[in-house]
Specification:
- By secondary structure, the protein is mostly helical.
- Helix content is 62%, strand content 0%.
Length: 78
């Protein structure tokens, strides 16, 4: 859960930095260098993805089904 939160914060910071860089005009023109709305869309998609993962993990922990052996095929379980 801690890794999930840390990765979400890092990706959000990266996306916000890209948005800010997209708003900086170049020396030759006054138009932004990139399309900030694409970065906002990417940030929204990442937010939805990580929020969905966090909710799924929390529900799994609440149900008491935290069993890492379920990741292995049946014939590999001990």
């Amino acid at each position: 859960m801690r890794k999930l939160i840390i990765s979400f914060v890092l990706i959000s910071a990266l996306q916000l930095a890209m948005i800010r860089l997209g708003d900086i005009p170049t020396k030759t023109s006054n138009t932004p260098t990139t399309y900030p709305h694409l970065h906002i869309l990417a940030l929204a998609l990442f937010t939805a993805l990580f929020l969905g993962l966090a909710i799924a993990i929390i529900r799994k922990e609440e149900n008491g089904k935290e069993n890492h052996h379920n990741l292995l095929p049946k014939n590999y379980r001990h």
